[in-house]
Amino acid sequence: MLSREDTRFLPLLIPALLFYGVFLVYPMMSTFFYCLTNYSGLSNNISFVGLKNFATLVRDGGFRIAIRNTLIFVVMDIVIQNALGLTAALILDMNLKTTNMLRTVFFVPVVIAPIVISFIWTYIYNYDVGIANLILSRVGLPRIDFIGNPGSAIYFVILSGIWQWFSYRMVIYLAGLQTIPRELYEAAVTDGANSLYRFFHITIPMLVPAFTINIILCTIGALKQFDLVFMMTGGGPGYSTEVMTTKIYREAFTQQNMGYATAIGLFLFLAILLVTVAQYSLLRRREVEA
Amino acid sequence: MKRAFSHVLILVLLFGGMTAYATGQKEPAPQKSVHLSLILITGHDPFQAVVDNYVKANPGVTVDVQNMPTEQFKTIIKTKFAADDAPDVFPIFNDDESVSYVKNGYVADLSGMSDVVSRLKTGADSTLRTDTGVLFAFPVEMQLIFMYYNKDMFKAKGVSIPKTWDDFVAACKTFMDKGITPITIGHKDTWTTQMIPYGLTPAKVHNKDPKFQKDVLKGLKKYADNAGWVDIMSKYEYLLGQGFFNKGSLGTSFEQSLQMFANGDAAMTPNGTWAMGTINDMKPAFAVGGFPIPADKADAPAASASINGGYTVYAKSKNIDSAKKLLAYMVSPAGLSIYLKDKGPAPFKDVNVSLAPAINEVIDLEKGMPLYNFDNWAIGVQEVFMKSIQEMIAGQIHAIDVLKACDEATKKALNR
């Protein structure tokens, strides 16, 4: 219960609440309206169509492809980004002479704009002149059509995103590592525990809060992924790298199906909400107090 | 004390907010100054110099120019219409989508600009008028689609310009046997997938049935039932099956494919007049030529040429008269003589530009051929066409499936 003194500061919240209401709450509420209409995004003739857009979702093969690719994004991001992030954090925690240089090298991709990352990796992946294929051909291996092969393009798009963001995980893990009391390690060494034992029985349990936040952030980031896919492949070849966000974009702006696009957007919102709540509940139970 | 402090804090924050608001307001414009906004799409960059000249000649007029790729522009303009924030002057294309912009009141009727209209070549505005005669854009270029080729390579390998489809396939086989990539194309950028079909539709479809496209838009005909379209897509699939395109074309962008051609790594590349400037910038060490993509010997030849779009004025512009003046200058002889360097023929009677040798060669070869517009799709169908061709290139579907997908998309568009 707020004290009388505290209530005097409530009016200071008005500007922030106004901003939040106009730019977040109103658009979100509009989604609940437009997803039940045939709004094209251009014409002011809007008709109520009930649940027709959601029925289309169920039948739309393109939507199933988008869900599949989004889930691949989530799984790969969670596993590989966290593995790389933790490894980089452990290296930096060793306080080597090159720690400062390594920290900079690891973190540079995060500060590069996604559009630049997309251009860089499109050239790296190029079949004829890309550096990846030049290396492969020099060592006698066949060239790979990285983002031109519909069967594998999505994986290589995801890998370029992982390259950009793993150091973000690293920062969180590094912060977690540096809060682990040294006495725990000293006591374990005294008791004869080797480094592997210390890693699995001290480091990992004490890093669970960092795991929680990183897994949740990875999941949300992967579910919202747009710019990398849009710039590198446009959802192609064909529709093979389409994800939920590019599907929303295409339906809204190319197909002029704004009503259907908002229905997909609502589905995405609910998916992010459910997954985040489930992950948080599951992972919180495993956290260990120091 | 705390109470007084809280009152002071609230007052300071409110005052600060009001001050920020006040200083955030634009200074009232000086008398007679006009601020216009203009979007230029990729390839239309020479217009920047035209705009700079206009601003110099018109003190008091400022023009804010934004540059963006075509596909990005096509989506952004819709959000700008919805937000009532469209630029005063912007590019527009001859398609159903643009007609919907006109019908929804976003695009001005330019028919009243008689001094500009009277300068147009006959027929140059035919693709830029609605059924009710509204002129929704002024054209800036006549665009041709053809095959760019490496003249030195053709001469060195003893290959002449193909006049029929069989000659063309034979030329491709010759280059392949000699270890040269016959055709380079950037299939990663979806629009490039249209070059081969658009090169062949004039002879195989429009020359045989000039009303075909209009009938499709009325729901009376289908692409999959048209022998010409079926033959075109089968030929495309044949070229793919023979391996005549650069490997990894689905991962190659438009610019990368032109670079490959300019480096002499491929004999030919299909594209439009808009690519000439980019090829010249890459400074190829050989003479660049052009020839129309040939159809079968039995088909009467026809040329793929189009006024594919132009520039227009936002109907709800606050400075509509000034915007029209800017547009009129952009398409004036002074404006187009700068813009059309290394591009296609001018659509205005009083604009004479020297064309690149490759384009002159194509025009010579197409002399006497009827010209046909290369595209006019129902809303959303063009994207389905391009994406389906990518799926065909990837081997996921066949030629006929591309056309069936277009028919399904057309049906959906017409039923809305």
Main sheet properties of chain B: 6 strands, mixed
Number-wise, the strands of chain B total 11
**CATH fold field value of chain A:** MetI-like fold
The helical percent of chain A reads over 70%
Report the average pLDDT across residues of chain A: 90
Could you give me the name of the CATH homologous superfamily of the largest domain in chain B? Periplasmic binding protein-like II
Uncertain segments of chain B are 19-31
End-to-end Cα distance of chain A, whole Å, is 31 Å
Mean of the pLDDT scores of chain B? 90
Beta percentage of chain A is: under 5%
Terminus-to-terminus distance of chain B? 67 Å
Helicity of chain B, as a percent range: 40-55%
Structural class of chain B: alpha/beta
Low-confidence residue ranges of chain A: none
What quaternary form is this? heterodimer
- The count of helical stretches of chain B stands at 17
Following the backbone from N to C, one meets helices and strands of chain A in this order, namely HHHHHHHHHHHHHH
Total domain units of chain B? 2
Approximate shape of chain A: globular
What is the C-alpha radius of gyration of chain A, as a whole number of Å? Answer: 24 Å
Question: Strand-and-helix sequence of chain B, N→C?
Answer: HEHEHEHHEEHHEHHHHEHEEEHHHEHH
